[in-house]
Amino acid sequence: MEILDGKKISNQIKDEIAVEVAQMKERGEKVPHLAAVLVGNDGASLTYVGSKVRSCKKIGFESTLIHLPEDTTEEALLKQVADLNANPDIDGYIVQLPLPKHIDEQKVLLAVDPDKDVDGFHPTNFGKMALDMESFIPATPFGIMELLRRYNVETSGKHTVVIGRSHIVGRPISILMSQKGQAADSTVTLTHSRTKDLKALTLQADIVVSALGVPNFLKEDMVKEGVTIIDVGITRVPDDTHEKGYYITGDVDFENVSKKASYITPVPGGVGPMTIAMLLQNTLLARERHKSKQA
Ligand code: GUN
Question: What is the per-residue DSSP string for 206-222?
Answer without folding.
Answer: SEEEE----TT-B-GGG
